[in-house]
Amino acid sequence: QVQLVESGGGLVQAGGSLRLSCAASGIIFSRNTMGWYRQAPGKQRELVATITSGSSTSYADSVKGRFTISRDNAKKMVYLQMNSLKLEDTAVYYCNDEYDNWGQGTQVTVSS
Asked: Which of 109, 111, 101 minimizes the C-alpha distance to 22?
């Protein structure tokens, strides 16, 4: 079955960086558009970034210029490099594929 497993979350100071990873199995990864979403406390889940099978990327306005999504098809991995983190980036971050499969999430907490 499809499994998406996120890792790399943690506690970081504002202005710092984190790199999230998502390991995929059970899908033809190279053909899938993959995405990162996040959900902050009391808020709806929102799209952060997507990357197509051809590695075209798109970003939410709130993270443009700070976050970078990438993929390694050979390893079936998708990454989210997060730089210049802000307090408002605090959320649980989820990996997602185009068939609406989800990982369990990884917590990112940005402190002042």
From this structure: 101
